[in-house]
Amino acid sequence: MRLFLLFLSFIFLISANKPPISTYDIKTAVEKNIIHFKAIGNPVSPHYYQPISIKITNKTNKYIVLKIPNGQRFVSDSTEIQDIIITREDMIALRPFQSLEKKLFGMCIQENNAASSERDTFHLGEMASENLVKLTSEIEKNNSFNTIGQYAVWSLTDKYPIEKIDGFDETNSHYYQKYVSDLLGLPYPELKPSKYKTYYQKTISKHSSLVGKFKYNIHKNSNITMGLFNEQNIIVRELYNNPNQEAGEHEFKYAFDMETYNDPVYYIRLIINGEVMVNLKMEPRRS
Predict the structure, then answer these.
(1) What gap in Å lies between CA 149 and CA 126, rounded to an integer?
(2) Segment 160-170, tens digit of pLDDT
(3) For an engineered disulfide with 74, which of 122, 220, 246, 276 has Cβ 3.0 to 4.6 Å away?
(4) Mind giving me the DSSP string for 213-271?
(5) Residue 212: helix, strand or coil by DSSP?
(6) Is 21 helix (H, G, I), strand (E, B) or coil?
(7) 45 vs 140: CA distance, rounded Å
(8) What is d(CA 205, CA 210) in angstroms, rounded to the nearest whole number?
(9) What's the pTM?
């Protein structure tokens, strides 16, 4: 019996010494002056993957867990830079007075603004609308941190045409076209193979096309995306997408229709696991 009582006393001592941990959502933590944070653009990630990096400091002498909810809005301090909606909830544990940095999954909600850089800062905004939170939660559930997910977000925030929710993966694009149509109570758009911008299997123009290729080597299976970006660092066309590219050396051949994409400058970007690894500037020559 004495040994049993000693054992119980030992368990009680461990429990008593365990520091209490409080959980706060980021808005409450800011309002209560529990944390300080600074949010800036993430220059090595496209605007639809992890576009924002946050540095958080626990201002208290207590252990806390900080919740950054799906659908939380971060507002750009510049009217020319995109605001960001969080597309994956994060729970961040902080020791007393600890500071740490974390990249957050999010997507932009202003199609016509420029993507952010490390010089751009953000402040905390309100939660997204009910429909937008439903969509960003669906994006998180399906790991749709890609151009199709971004176009779907724009359909709710920027009146982006539902038929333009498209990309290299047709099955995924059709899924989100249907999902957004149902959210908005609109008819499911008709597929139009004649439109190059919204039908990715359409052959590019034989008379005015820009083609090229480059090689890359990866050491482990990776999420690979190739995209065509404009001068505002916004993707205008997904050229390739493989969420589970096998390790090894690969050659990628890209092509796009210069009659459709006719800006003076574009960038071909190789994105590996959410980070831009190759950034090739293109200045198409036109007759």
Answers:
(1) 21
(2) 999 999 888 88
(3) 122
(4) EEEEEESS-EEEEEEEE-TTS-EEEEEEEEEEEPSEEEEEEEEEETTT---S-EEEEEE
(5) strand
(6) strand
(7) 17
(8) 9
(9) 0.86
Q: How confident is the model at residue 68 (pLDDT cuts 50, 70, 90)?
A: very high
Please tell me the distance from the alpha carbon of residue 208 to that of residue 206, in angstroms, as a whole number: 6
Percent of the chain at pLDDT above 70? 87
In the numeric block, which tokens belong to residue 122?
Answer: 């953000």
**At 191, which amino acid appears?**
L
- The one-letter code for the residue type at 88 is R
How far apart CA 168 and CA 48 sit, in angstroms, is 15
User: What's 209-282's CATH class?
Assistant: mainly beta
Let me know: does 119 contact 80? Beta carbons within 8 Å.
Answer: no
Q: Which amino acid type is present at position 217?
A: N
Kindly report, residue by residue over 42-55, the tens digit of the pLDDT.
999 999 999 999 99
Residues with Cβ within 8 Å of residue 47, at least 6 apart in sequence? 82, 107, 108, 115, 116, 150, 233, 234, 235
Say if residue 125 is exposed, middle or buried (CB neighbours under 10 Å; 0-12, 13-18, 19+): middle
Distance from C-alpha of 24 to C-alpha of 38, rounded to nearest angstrom: 17
Token pair 């205008």: residue: 236
pLDDT tens per residue, range 9-41? 554 554 555 678 899 999 999 999 999 999 999
Residues of the chain with CATH 2.60.40.10: 209-282
**Residue with tokens 């209560």, as numbered in its chain:** 32
Give the pLDDT confidence score for residue 208 in this predicted structure: 63
How many distinct helices (H) and strands (E) make up the chain?
A: 5, 16
58, exposed or middle or buried, with CB in 10 Å at 0-12, 13-18, 19+?
A: buried
